[in-house]
Amino acid sequence: MWRRVVSLSPLLSSSKSRSLNQVQVPYGFNACQFFYTQVLNSALICFIFFRFIKLISSYFAPSSGYMAISFKFWEIRAEDGVSGARRKPFVTFVLGGPGSGKGTQCTRIVNTFGFTHLSVGDLLRKEIYSDSENGSMILDTIKEGKIVSSEVTVKLIKNAIEASENRRILVDGFPRSEENRIAYERVVGVEPDIVLFFDCPKEEMVKRVLNRNEGRIDDNIDTVKERLTVFSELNLPVIKYYSEKGKLHKIDGTGTEDEIFERVLPVFAALR
Ligand SMILES: Nc1ncnc2c1ncn2[C@@H]1O[C@H](COP(=O)(O)OP(=O)(O)O)[C@@H](O)[C@H]1O
Ligand SMILES: O=c1ccn([C@@H]2O[C@H](COP(=O)(O)OP(=O)(O)O)[C@@H](O)[C@H]2O)c(=O)[nH]1
Ligand SMILES: [Mg+2]
């Protein structure tokens, strides 16, 4: 009996237990040998079993507790700029000009597909009111319709992604320039999985922004004009980049909110 167990446990049978085995007491009760073989074997099997379950669940059950553990692992690796392969969060960038309906459609995607919505504009506005050292610079930049430096924005996004327990994340309104995009990839270490672009005529965007009625300092005709120029000059190249990479889903942003969402649904159909 002993011989059989020991021969099945090459990893656990130490040279000591093997020599004991060879010298004598192969059939007698030996507490030390019993521990090395039976108890440690069971522990090893349990360990391997749970590692296996964890690995499987990280691939097939994104919202499970095990996935949360895997996500933490990704965070640690992302610090080094290393892509965590399939363990990373599932990130969707949501792009479009001012008033194209990004925020509105994000709310629907959240409700239907369980994403967490990170509006980068909202993150920046929070900074203004939280008395942070960058507050006044952000306020001035938003008022002028320009783009806040990548150093500030990417840090806010990275922190928000790391704070999220949810693996599915919508990054709304970013990257707004090629420089933004490159900085994000350098700091966070991964590319987005999907990029949505709400394509809307300028006159419609201006009309929506001027009717938005949220008390925003940039919802006025002068700022919106500047934002449209910035959008054409700096944001369109980003959209082109993702289009060439085959990641872009261009959505017609005209019509009712319902009609637009109908066009969004197929993009995420596989995630239902
Ligand atoms: N399909 C639509 N038709 C008319 N108004 C819309 C539509 N989608 C959004 N809006 C309104 O237009 C304004 C801008 O929408 P929002 O989602 O904030 O756009 P963005 O985030 O791209 O600036 C909001 O007041 C919103 O309620
Ligand atoms: O990545 C970003 C996102 C926003 N902004 C600034 O925040 C403003 C408002 O952005 P938001 O996405 O809230 O506006 P929206 O497009 O939804 O109207 C922009 O015009 C920019 O000045 C920025 O600098 N970088
Ligand atoms: Mg918005």
UniProtKB/TrEMBL annotation:
GO terms for molecular function: AMP kinase activity; ATP binding. Its EC number is 2.7.4.3. SUPFAM superfamilies: P-loop containing nucleoside triphosphate hydrolases (SSF52540). Coiled coil: none annotated. One of its GO terms (biological process) is pyrimidine nucleotide biosynthetic process. InterPro entries: Adenylat/UMP-CMP_kin, Adenylat_kinase_CS, P-loop_NTPase, UMP_CMP_kinase. The keyword Heme does not apply. It is an enzyme of class 2 (transferase). It catalyses: UMP + ATP = UDP + ADP. Keywords: ATP-binding, Cytoplasm, Kinase, Membrane, Nucleotide-binding, Nucleus, Pyrimidine biosynthesis, Transferase, Transmembrane, Transmembrane helix. It holds the Pfam family ADK. The chain crosses the membrane at residues 35-53. Belongs to the adenylate kinase family. This is adenylate kinase.
